[in-house]
Design goal:
Layout: H1 15-28, H2 41-55, E1 63-67, H3 72-84, E2 89-95, H4 100-107, H5 130-136, E3 142-146, H6 148-162, H7 172-179, E4 189-190, H8 200-208
Parallel strand pairs: 1-2, 1-4, 2-3
């Protein structure tokens, strides 16, 4: 982002604190616009192109396991699948240490959490976006939680078997398939591997350390 000319400011201790800082910045700088994942249709539309890729698979997909953070990724993928492949079940996957979106979907209303404690910082939502929850109604069939140990196991499997470096938030779909193997037995499951934002130290600790 800096290479493209943006001024990057690190703010807050987590995802939602950073959003609050960005919102405040936009409110005090004329001409600035706050863009919120989960509330911006264009972001969901872009994410929906992943469903087009899934549809190219030669066999019908029984279930799509989609990371669930603020909701744009799942809304985009889910809306397209429900319109074009309604038989495909759309399952959202949250980190167990950041269950706010899962609890909100189950309750049918926003349920904020006091903290988010997970290595999957890309989906570590404390304060759900109401508009995103509205978008998920009729799109998501189920939501599952996976803990950090399952996420690391999925990341290591992807690295060891495929040579792919995937960040924790992008590996939760594989983590769910591994943790709930019996639930998906005999089904063709698909999941996007989205994001490879790891530091060198995280790669060493989670992927290349001798003790697997």
């Amino acid at each position: 982002m800096r290479e493209l000319g943006a001024r990057v400011v690190l703010a807050g201790r987590d995802f939602d604190a950073a959003k609050d800082a960005a919102r405040a910045h936009a409110a005090t700088h004329p001409g600035a616009r706050f863009i919120e994942d989960g509330h911006e249709p264009a972001i969901a539309e872009g994410a929906g192109t992943i469903a087009l890729e899934l549809d190219r698979w030669p066999e019908p997909i029984d279930v799509a396991l989609v990371p669930l953070g603020n909701g744009a990724l799942l809304a985009g993928v889910g809306l397209w699948l429900k319109a074009h492949r309604p038989s495909t079940r759309v399952v959202g996957v949250c980190a167990a240490g950041a269950p706010a979106m899962a609890e909100s979907w189950r309750e049918g209303r926003p349920v904020a959490a006091g903290a988010a404690d997970t290595i999957a910082d890309g989906i570590a939502v404390r304060v759900p976006v109401p508009a995103a929850l509205d978008d998920l109604r009729g799109v998501m069939d189920e939501v599952l939680l996976v803990d950090d140990a399952a996420i690391v196991a999925a990341m290591r499997l992807l690295f060891d078997a495929l040579g792919i470096v995937v960040e924790p938030a992008g590996a939760v779909g594989v983590a769910a398939a591994l943790a709930h193997e019996a639930r998906f037995a005999g089904q063709l499951a698909a999941t996007p591997l989205c994001g490879g934002n790891l530091t060198a130290e995280q790669v060493r600790r989670w992927l290349t350390a001798a003790a697997h």
